[in-house]
Amino acid sequence: MKLPHIISYTFFAPFTIQIILAYEWLSAGWEKIHGGQFVPNIGKTLDHFENGNPHEWYIALILAIAKSHPVVFGLLVQWGELFVGIGLIATIAIFTLSQHRYSKNIARFLALTALSGGALMNLNFYLAAGWTSPSTGGLNALMFWVQIVLLAAWAAIACENKRGLRS
Q1: How confident is the model at residue 156 (pLDDT cuts 50, 70, 90)?
Q2: pTM of the model
Q3: Cα–Cα distances in Å, from 123 out to 5, 79, 82, 99, 155?
């Protein structure tokens, strides 16, 4: 396949953005798992997020739950990040390589699941730590909204497919 043909592919831009997001999620999750210090130190991190956080409702609700079960929370975060990245890559592979409608539907479901999980984690990190620096807040807000746009795109693809089935 020649480069102009690849760039003119309908899904080139969204898939490129999705691959970038997948890389970010994979590297973040892998770094936490491989480094081995994320889960043991999550309590200190949560304490830091709590002190000075302007979102009092978030402290009372989410951080309180996370602080009462820090190991479970830490494991969910690190593995969640890794699985979101894997899901985003697998989605593109399944969708582009498969010719079967059933496989494409699995790809759509996987995309919606991975993007929802990623957006939820970015929103939570934004509320937990976005106030600590403009870059932390900005990057997580950006990733959240990019994932929301990709969610809408995958949902639109699913709706188009359903309309095509009825015709």
Answers
A1: confident
A2: 0.87
A3: 36, 17, 17, 35, 20
